[in-house]
Amino acid sequence: MTPRDRSDSDTPKPDGLRLRARLRFLYHGASQTAVRFRYSVLVIDLLIVAFFIAAPLLKEGGLVFYVVDYIIAALLALDLAARAYCHSDLKDWLRKPIVWVDLFILATLLFPAWLFNLGFLRVIRLWTLVNSDFFWRTVGRRYDDTRVEDQVKALTALVTFIFVATGFVYTSFVGTESISGYVDALYFTVTSLTTTGYGDVLLPGTWGRIISIVIMLTGVTLFVRLGQTLLRPHKVRYPCDRCGLQVHDPDAVHCKACGNLLCIPDDGRS
Predict the structure, then answer these.
(1) What's residue 210's pLDDT?
(2) I need a surface site. Which of 13, 69, 106, 211 has the fewest CB within 10 A?
(3) With 80 as the cut, is the pLDDT of residue 202 above it?
(4) What residue intervals traverse the membrane (predicted)?
(5) 1.10.10, 2.50.20, 1.20.120, 3.40.50: which CATH number matches 12-142?
(6) Which residues contact 111 (CB under 8 A, 6 or more apart)?
(7) What CATH number belongs to 143-231?
(8) Cα–Cα distances in Å, from 143 out to 119, 171, 269?
C-alpha cells in the first residue's frame, strides 16, 4: 500500500493536533480518567480560592507569600491556556464573561504589588468555578434536578459576596478606628448583610454609610434567593422534544407548555 492509498485515520496526526485532542479528552471526556482529572483540577481550584480568602492574613509572610502567589498564577495560566487551546473557537471562548474574570484574576496574581488592592476580587473565582460547565460536567453530572444546582449556585453567590465585601471593607478602611484587621472587616460584613447591626463596628463617613447600605440590601437579596431555592419544588431536566422546555415536575406526564406526552425516567427518587 502506497502512502497515497492510506486512509486519514492511518496518517499520524501532528503533535499540536494530538495535544489538542488529549486536552479535549481530559476537559470534556466522560471516561473515568477524564473525570478524575477534572476532579483534581477542581480540588486545586478550591485550594486556590482558600488562598485568595486568606491572602490578607498571609500577606505579612513576605517573600513566601509572593512565591506562592506566582505559583498560583502559573497554575491558573496553564489552566486557561489549556482550556483556550482545546476550545474549537477561540473568539467564542473569549466572549464568555467568566473567561475575562479569570484573566483579570490572573493579572492580579502576576502584578501583586500594583494590583493587590483589587485582590479581594480574586474570590470571584469561586463564583466563576461553580457557574462553569466544567464544574457541572464533573461534580454535577449525577444530578438531573435543577434544585440541587440552583441551591449550590445561590449559596456560592452568597459566600462569594461575603468575602468580596469583606476584602473591599478591609482594603478601604483598615487602619481606621473600627477596622483594625481582617476579622473586624468580616464581622462588620456579616452583621451588616444579616441586618443585625450591633453598632460596635462602623464604617466612618458618608462613603462608609453608603457601603453599609449596599451590603445590607445585597445581602438580604442573596438570602431571599437562597431561601427560594431551598423551598422551590423539585424539578428534573428532561427537554420536551416538541417545544424544548427543559425542566418539568418529576412525575409530569405531559409538558405544561405544549401538552406533549413525556416519558421521564423514574430512577427511584422520592
Answers:
(1) 92
(2) 13
(3) yes
(4) 39-58, 64-86, 98-116, 152-173, 207-227
(5) 1.20.120
(6) none
(7) 1.10.287.70
(8) 34, 39, 11
Q: What average pLDDT does range 190-209 have in this prediction?
A: 86
Angstrom distances, CA of residue 87 to CA of 20, 44, 67, 81, 248? 9, 21, 30, 10, 32
pLDDT at 9: 44
pLDDT digits (tens, 9 = 90+) for 207-266: 989 999 999 999 889 888 888 887 776 677 778 888 878 777 777 878 887 888 887 776
Q: Which amino acid is at 122?
A: R
pLDDT at residue 6 greater than cutoff 60:
no
- Give the contacts of 239 (CB within 8 A, at least 6 positions apart): 245, 246
| 138, 42 contact by CB (below 8 A) | yes
Residues in the chain: 270
Residues 203 and 169 sit within 8 Å (Cβ to Cβ): yes
- Only one residue has cell 466563576, namely 128
Query: What does the domain layout of the chain look like in residue ranges?
Result: 12-142, 143-231, 233-270
Cα–Cα nearest to 179, from 209, 208, 202: 202
Alpha carbon distance 230, 1 (integer Å): 65
C-alpha cell at 19: 495535544
Tell me the percentage of the chain whose pLDDT exceeds 90: 17
Task: For residues 121 and 104, give the distance between their C-alpha atoms in angstroms, rounded to a whole number.
Answer: 9
User: What is 79-140 written as a DSSP string?
Assistant: HHHHHHHHSS-HHHHHT-HHHHHHHHHHHHHHSHHHHGGGGGGGGHHHHHHHTSHHHHHHTG
- pTM of the prediction? 0.75
Largest Cα–Cα separation, the chain: 86
